[in-house]
Amino acid sequence: MKRTSWFNVTSLTLGFAFLYLPMIILVIYSFNESRLVTVWAGFSTKWYGELFRDQEFLDAAWVTLKVAVFSSTLATVLGTLAAYVLVRAGRFHGRTLFSGMIYAPLVMPEVITGLSLLLLFIGIGLDRGVFTIVLAHTTFSMCYVSVVVSSRLATFDRALEEAALDLGCSAFDAFRLVTLPIIAPAVISGWLLAFTLSLDDLVIASFTTGPSATTLPIKIFSAVRLGVSPQINALSTLLIAIVTIGVVTASIITKRAAVAQARDEQAAARTA
Amino acid sequence: MAQTVFAPWTEADQKPLIEFRNVTKRFGEFTAIDDLSLKIYEKEFFALLGPSGCGKTTMMRMLAGFETVTEGNILLAEQDINDVPPNKRPVNMMFQSYALFPHLSIWENIAFGLRREGRDKAFIDTRVEEMLRLTRLTRFAKRKPHQISGGQRQRVALARSLAKAPKLLLLDEPLGALDRKLREETQFELMDIQEKTGTTFVIVTHDQEEAMTVASRIAVMDEGRLVQVDTPGQIYEAPNSVYVADFIGDVNLFPGKARARPEDTQIAAAAPDQPVSDQPVPDQAAADQTATAPMAEPAPSPTATPPEGPTVARLPAPDAKGDWLYDKIFRRFLGDRTTAPRRLPPPNAEELAAPKPEPAATAQPAEPAIKPGGIFIDWAEGQPPIIAAGGDPAMDGREVTYSIRPEKVTIDTVRPDRPNVYEGKVIDIAYLGNISTYHVELAGGRMVKAQMVNARRLANRPITWEDTVWVGFTETAGVVLEE
Amino acid sequence: MRRAILIAIPYLWLTALFLVPFLIVLKISLSDIALARPPYTPQFDFSAGLEGLGAFFSELDFENFVFLTTDDLYWKSYLSSVQIAGLSTLITLAVGYPVAYAMARADEAWRPTLLMLVILPFWTSFLIRVYSWMGILASEGPLNAVLLALGIIDQPLQIMNTNVAVYIGIVYTYLPFMILPIYSALEKLDGSLLEAAEDLGCSRLSAFWLVTWPLSRPGIIAGCFLVFIPALGEFVIPSLLGGSDTLMIGKVLWEEFFNNRDWPVASAVAVILLAILIIPIVLFQRNEQKAREAEG
Fold first, then answer.
1. pLDDT at B107 over 80
2. Does residue B3 fall inside a structural domain?
3. Which pLDDT score is estimated for C70?
């Protein structure tokens, strides 16, 4: 029944070429000796060297990393809590507003989120810097975390929690010992998502930062506004490499786990 | 089905609707269908039966056009249809998953094929109405598939595939998704609709009971080949191989060596001081069973699907007429009679003492003696040989297998007067409500299954575990198989 | 009691950092620009109490919104944003559907890998993905070089800094958002439905239009909204790939705020952008709900 359809093969080839060629070209040009895009002047890693000598880039990378780690961790805690409230707390006053506030930031244009937070920070006279970016990133990425976690919680068999309570756990222990380990994969992917979102964000960071804190995307943006820069090519290549390694490793681990589980289940079925 | 003369396969000049001519289908290295030839005639209800992976689904998908034939030809009304795509074949299929379009209403689902034919609106309206009426779905016309029950979905799938009035309807495990009770009802509905529409049905199933119930002929398949193609009665009563005997229903198999039996042999194993007859020993629960054995119909009626289906059981209280009445009328409302004894009061002494009604006179075989001829089968050291009147004396000296259905084996506490009688011990009793299967171990270790209708309540049953019993069967009850 | 605390923490956080800021935007959009810090009036005077509140409200007006209608830059950029987002959504659909279809039809063993390949760009920096096109589309970039070498064109195309570049950028960056929902709709499609359609007389093409397409519609709608909604407020793509004549409301808002420092007008622009977005967002929610109900 399965035939190799030329239409399908062509669609896949063209589709993935479109998705990946730009990045591949970018990676190739990051090793170009010449400053110009047009001329291939031979293989060189000099732009990487220059990148690591540029203190501004290193500072920005450090700020970005700090912001991402703090905001994603905070967002994971708050987002998991929000998901728990959303799925488990039942009815309470203002639940509709609450779920609205969880979903709205997902579709809110970044320019509006950024603008509104900036106006708040000015309004209450908060000094802008790393702290305000962390607050801003936490706010919008906790919503993503809570969506990821709540979808896992929704399929979670409530009887497991009840069994824990029945066996003498306090509500907190039941959450810590039963619920959390089971939703852990969702919490971890929520954290990763929040981390990437924070790492990636240009618009909200631009609005909420002050002169003291420049993140990597802000730095990249101001550099590339003027045109293609080989240094940015090198930086992009590094980021692409990190993400690729991360995602591929994660998917291999997940696949291994799935295969191992399937094997265990098979073995169990045989011995039964 | 003796009274029905519908048997086109027996007529030499009859043109088949479908013909497989030396069809082979390979998937890479794997041969799914191996040089298979088969004719299916118009108005047949033809069942392809076999375990999963035997190639029955491949056969059906080749008929529908979803699989191409590797070698050979498939002919539909004498036209080669190998190269006709599925959408151009006058063949429709009812899918196992029903494959109802979830975005269309029941009405639109049924009209789907008619619209593709470009029929005018009035025609489509009439035809869909007709189909809805046929399948009793008129009320649900506007609903979507997920808004109706499983049984109704099954009927929509049937209506949709019948709407185009195909020459041939293919049914892929049509009742597989239904629960047992609904499945039995639906089997009759299917037969009814097949008869009304006069369409040729080819059904794929792994459920032998279902095939026995609905089909006019059954093709038993194994590893891409046809093992036997015959009427349900013949398949059951005269399997042509151990495979078929074993696949259809429950069976006792005695491998042994054949020895020709002289024509004039009259009496062999039966006790000499008793008149040799098939007359059952009175006052034994098994007696009824004995009576039914020789007269077993070639095709079991739908209500008597052997062996675990409800059989023609006789209960202590009603007589034969009452039985008949129950079976024909009340069973529909009250359910199988197997439940009936539980509602009856315990039998009183009078009832117990009263002579049981004699088995119907017609049940008595005409010949009182053991049929002459046939073969002996030596199947175990120290045991008398099995007398098989149906065996071919030419088999003399060959390895054969004697196959006998458990319901044709009687079980008694005293030695009965039967041509083949063996002593054994009851090891296990499987109580199935209407019947019980006794597992009896003969001397030498061979297990024999004997089935008995539970005409009496458990407490009154004379036979129990560890009892020494006699199993017996007539010389014509089993079949001699050669591999 | 503990439950109340559990609810209160995320609730208060979101109220303070999402709802209140948005109300501030609403308020400032009704204020006047002022050469001060912060550069708008009236300031709400907390010490004046209720009286102050009255005075505060009396000074609010819709002047900024009136201003937005008088200067055609604004409504033109709203219109152009809708047009660019809409058209690029359709292009993304045209590009993404065949890919999603082919993925769903691919061998089962391949599907997880293909899926990962679609998701991978999503984890890669958005900014970098947009930036990668700057080099490719440049007049002396690889795309023009290839086209020139093939003899398709005889002089470099000016794609960079035009709306065409913006379309390419949006289609490229949002393609995974289109592919994923369509793929998940198509993957659920029972193959026997297509066989049933063929069995009932459909050709392959008509089986696609009558069965596959309608059944993948929830995925298509979800994908379109997932592309259209963020594309409408897009800032990075038009500012990096677009030209000076590329009008998109996100860019206008940014410039109004950072370059002109006109906070009230920027806020008014934001309020109207949100008003425009509410329609597709509500429609999207409905679609999702319907899809969930159909499944359940």
1. yes
2. no
3. 78
Check whether residue B289 and residue B159 sit in a common domain: no
- Quote the DSSP letter at residue C15: I
| B264, two tokens | 């004039």
Cβ C233 vs Cβ C249: under 8 Å = yes
Q: Which residues of A132-163 are buried (b: 16+ CB within 10 A; e: fewer)?
A: bbbbbbbbbbbbbbbbbbbebbeebeeeebee
Q: Flag whether A49 is in a domain.
A: no
Across the interface, of C24, C98, C140, the residue whose CB is closest to A11 is C98
Whether the CB of A123 is below 8 Å from some CB of chain C: the reply is: yes
In a domain, A128, yes or no: yes
Q: How many domains does chain B have?
A: 2
Q: Is the separation of the CB atoms in C265 and C68 below 8 Å?
A: yes
Asked, for residue A268, whether it belongs to a domain, the answer is no
- Same structural domain, B243 and B319: no
Residue A182 forms part of a structural domain: yes
**Residue B404, Cβ density class (10 Å: 0-12 exposed, 13-18 middle, ≥19 buried):** buried
Take residue B99 and report the two structure tokens written for it.
Answer: 């494959």
Q: In CATH, what number is assigned to the domain containing residue A110?
A: 1.10.3720.10
Same domain, B321 and B455: yes
Q: Which helix (H) or strand (E) holds C171?
A: helix C163-188
Q: Name every chain C residue with its beta carbon within 8 A of the beta carbon of A5.
A: 102, 105
ipTM for the assembly: 0.86
Q: Which residues of B touch C210 (CB under 8 A)?
A: 112
Asked if residue B307 has a cis previous peptide bond (ω within 30° of 0), the answer is: yes
Predicted pLDDT at B290: 40
Does B212 share its domain with B261?
A: no
Would you say residue B440 lies in a domain?
yes
Q: How far is CA B264 from the centre of its chain?
A: 36
How many angstroms separate the CA atoms of B126 and B114, rounded? Answer: 11
> Do B80 and B221 sit in the same domain of this protein?
yes
**C71-295 maps to CATH 1.10.3210.10:** no
Give pLDDT tens digits for B170-222: 999 988 878 888 888 888 888 988 988 889 999 999 888 889 989 999 999 99
pLDDT, one tens digit per residue, over C206-255 is 999 999 999 999 899 999 999 999 999 899 999 999 888 888 988 888 88
Mean pLDDT score across all residues of chain B? 79
Beta carbons of C186 and C101 less than 8 angstroms apart: yes
User: What is the tally of structural domains in chain A?
Assistant: 1
At residue B295, does pLDDT exceed 80?
A: no
Q: Which two tokens stand for residue B311?
A: 């059989």
Residue B1 in any domain: the answer is no
Neighbours of A228 (CB within 10 A): 21
Residue B108 in tokens: 């639109």
Residue B1 has pLDDT above 80, yes or no: no
Residue ranges, chain C, pLDDT below 50:
none
Between strands B386-388 and B375-378, the pairing is: antiparallel
Domains of chain C, residue spans: 71-295
What predicted TM-score, i.e. pTM, was given to this entire model? 0.76
Q: Mind telling me how many Å the CA of A89 is from chain C's nearest CA?
A: 7
Tell me whether residues C196 and B96 touch, CB distance under 8 A.
Answer: no
Mutation target to probe the B interface, by most B beta carbons within 10 A, among C199, C217, C221 is: C199
Are residues B196 and B301 located together in one domain of the fold?
A: no
For residue A132, the enclosing domain spans: 63-229
Contacts of B146 in chain C (CB under 8 A): 294
**B196 to each of B131, B189, B301, B303, how far by Cα in Å?**
12, 10, 19, 21
> For C101, which residue in chain A has the nearest alpha carbon?
A8
The domain in which residue B430 lies consists of 256-268+275-481
* Residue B286 belongs to a domain: yes
Least confident of A146-150, B369-373, C75-79: B369-373
Residues B215 and B304 in one domain: no
Contact B101 C294 (CB under 8 A): no
CA C256 to chain centre: 20
Cis ω before B359 (30° cut-off from 0): no
